[in-house]
Design brief:
heterodimer, A: 499 residues, mainly alpha, Cytochrome C Oxidase, Chain A, 15 helices, B: 204 residues, Cytochrome Bc1 Complex, Chain D, domain 2, two-stranded antiparallel ribbon, two-stranded antiparallel sheet, elongated
């Protein structure tokens, strides 16, 4: 599509009748070129937030077994660094790379370039300004102490407005699509871009701007916090899995019907799950019970999606060797199943009685957000960045280091801490064990967690270095044809364009 | 297939359902809970926190105490909260009607604080504990909150009334004393205000 025929701002709000003629479809090169600037801004800032968030995580982790570490400053105390870590990785790294991946997937699947990408760039800039203000606010002691909503009231509206811009623009891209066939990834993306602003605005209004009274706050808090996972990050992650697995191995998704079923059962059950964070708490039993039932029902979408992905991959696992994207995506997809099963178990009262209030929950959160979502984002970026920059990854060695450091790191993080948290819960529920003995018992696990965190840090630095390197190559004149640096993925690009 | 509007309707209805079920209905059920008069004592419970304790809640919030300390007691037979002495009864919604934000918490890296004002009624204990938890609780992994205290020279050889009485290995240099800043005083006032002892009928 040339510049002359590109729609004006007003036209793009009200798409003309679009011909379904496939000649009208934008080429992959056009789409990727239109995505370049806004996506790179989101990815660069997302990765900087990842490094900041990793640093904050390490400080917080060391503090839990070495309480005197950096204890002299209020802005570095544990209760400040921990929410700062959460908000940088959630609203910085995960949301920003998630938005980048989602926008690219949407344009590719709609076969339309990103129109008026300047608006996305403005949204990206404001998102980062809002988040920077908010993180400084948390460090300065303005945290709201409402989990997942710690950003102070003076920063969250900025995030909301820039997100609204992005969401509206995604829906416009969707309405402007030149490919009439819808793919399952598009449902997930549409849903995510609709659900998140609703969740975020309702939660901010009912908890921060005009707070409701009493324990209703806890209900709103966990309705929001659990749904951010289930209705914002999970759909983007699943959309990417549904796109990249068939794309890279070059065969269609196993079952169309299972993907429909998986989507609607997720939409139906996930958003009722939040109150399982309040089992045993001071809320009406009916409220908590509904969420326990809905949590168990999550077995349906989780197993459905797992079967669908696994059957698609069946017989093609060796392709993981050659494609870094596939390697990260498959590990992420498997972690999604594991994280969901662990979450369902934690929602069952007799298990919750032990693991609630322990480090088991922290391990579970990282299984979901890191081993599932962050891995999917890494994999997606390995695919997208060479296409939007028109350059190949400079170093296969750094990709190798990145994968193995974060893969081993996350296993060393999640497995021991899950076990440690469970043992901690057992001891805590035995009133004969003095509390300080429970604390002492957790220390070896917490030290181990710091080691695992260091390993993950190495991986993040390797990825960031490779990314900066590819950006540096963009400044040089274009030299070679683009192909994935690891052999075996060359030529797969052209397959499965009609999904 | 092209069911854009239909998919959108489904997406809308799914979240609308849980919003009604988990937020709107509870809002009608207990969104406007009122205090009650306790039959035995005739006092009205709960009372809004005033003055220093209210400021202390803000110190508690901004320092993120919630990330290691919960403020909710689970019912007898579910966990060992009551057996550990964290409360004489389970927590109920009415305990929190004046709190903002409601600081239920989700972690117990440290113990629950629902009735810490009753468990540790000593102001001195709290000041020492905040200054360095190793003084009162050796082996704890709670960080020291020394930035809530001020080290200053002793004036005219008279030690201030509110100077911390510290064991020798934690004491400052000769000629200096450690006094709590107003944030520390407010925080301790808040901690001492955490009692939750009123025998509510719904908590039996």
């Amino acid at each position: 599509m040339s510049e002359e025929t590109s729609p004006t701002l007003m036209q793009s709000l009200d798409p003309r009748k679009i011909s379904n003629d496939s000649d009208d479809c934008a080429t992959l090169v056009e789409i990727d070129r239109s995505c370049r600037a806004p996506l790179l801004i989101f990815i660069i800032s997302g990765l900087i937030w990842l490094l900041i968030g990793t640093g904050l995580a390490l400080i917080a982790s060391i503090k839990l077994h070495n309480p005197n570490f950096l204890s002299g400053w209020s802005w570095l105390s544990f209760g400040v660094v921990r929410p700062a870590h959460l908000n940088t990785v959630i609203y910085g790294f995960c949301s920003e790379t998630g938005i980048a991946v989602a926008l690219w997937l949407m344009c590719r699947l709609c076969k339309t370039p990103l129109i008026h990408s300047g608006i996305i760039i403005i949204a990206a800039v404001f998102w980062n300004i809002g988040l920077t203000i908010g993180i400084f606010g948390i460090l300065a002691g303005d945290s709201t102490s409402i989990e997942w909503l710690e950003l102070p009231a003076y920063s969250s509206p900025i995030l909301f407005i820039s997100f609204a811009l992005i969401g509206i623009w995604t829906v416009i891209a969707f309405r402007y699509r030149r490919e009439p066939m819808l793919y399952v990834s598009q449902w997930y993306l549409l849903a995510a871009f609709f659900w998140f602003p609703w969740l975020y605005s309702v939660a901010n209004i009912m908890l921060v701007l005009e707070p409701v009274h009493g324990t209703l706050q806890a209900a709103v808090n966990w309705w929001f916090a659990h749904n951010v996972l289930g209705l914002w990050f999970t759909p983007i992650g699943l959309a990417a899995i549904y796109y990249f697995i068939p794309k890279i191995i070059g065969r269609p998704i196993h079952s169309y019907h299972l993907s429909v079923f998986g989507f609607w059962s997720l939409a139906l059950f996930y958003n009722w799950n939040g109150m399982h964070h309040l089992i045993g708490g001071p809320l009406p039993a009916w409220l908590v019970t509904i969420s326990i039932v809905a949590s168990v029902m999550m077995l349906i979408p989780v197993v459905t999606v797992a079967i669908n992905h696994h059957m698609t991959m069946w017989g093609h696992f060796k392709a993981m060797k050659n494609s870094p994207t596939l390697r990260f995506i498959v590990v992420g997809a498997m972690s999604y199943t594991l994280a969901s099963l662990q979450g369902i178990a934690s929602a069952i009262p007799s298990y919750s009685e032990v693991v609630h209030f322990t480090h088991h929950t922290v391990a579970h959160a990282h299984l979901g957000m890191y081993a599932f979502f962050a891995m999917i984002m890494f994999g997606s970026m390995y695919y997208i960045i060479p296409r939007i920059t028109n350059r190949e990854w400079p170093s296969a060695g750094l990709i190798y280091i990145h994968f193995w450091a974060v893969f081993v790191g996350m296993i060393l993080y999640i497995v021991p801490l899950s076990i440690g948290g469970f043992l901690q819960g057992l001891k805590m529920n035995n009133p004969d064990v003095p509390f300080l003995e429970v604390v002492q018992m957790t220390l070896p696990f917490l030290k181990f967690r710091t080691l695992a965190g260091l390993l993950m840090t190495v991986g993040h630095i390797a990825f960031f270095a490779n990314f900066i390197w590819i950006l540096a190559r963009c400044l040089q004149p274009y030299r070679e044809p683009v192909a994935m640096i690891l052999k075996g993925t060359i030529g797969l690009e052209s397959k499965e364009e009609n999904s | 297939m092209n069911f854009g509007p239909l998919i959108f309707l489904g997406i809308f209805l799914s979240l609308a359902s849980s919003w009604c079920g988990l937020i709107l209905i509870p809002l009608f059920q207990f969104g406007k809970m009122e205090p009650v008069t306790i039959e035995m004592t005739g006092e009205i419970y709960p009372q809004p926190k005033g003055g220093e304790a209210k400021q202390g809640m803000s110190v508690y919030r901004s320092n993120g105490c919630i990330y290691c300390h919960s403020q909710q007691v689970r019912p007898r037979g579910f966990g060992a909260d009551i057996e550990r002495g964290w409360g004489s009864r389970r927590s109920v919604g009415r305990d929190y009607i004046y709190d903002n934000p409601v600081l239920l918490g989700t972690m117990r890296t440290g113990p629950d604080l629902t009735n810490i004002g009753q468990r540790q009624p000593s102001e001195d204990w709290h000041f020492s504990h905040l200054y360095d938890p190793q003084i009162t609780s050796p082996g704890s992994n709670m960080p020291p909150y020394r930035f809530l205290f001020e080290t200053r020279p002793i004036r005219n050889g008279v030690v201030s009334e509110n100077a911390l009485k510290l064991p020798a290995n934690f004491a400052p240099e000769d000629g200096f004393e450690i006094v709590p800043k107003k944030e520390a005083k407010a925080l301790v006032a808040y901690l001492l205000s955490l009692q939750a002892t009123a025998p509510l009928p719904e908590a039996r």
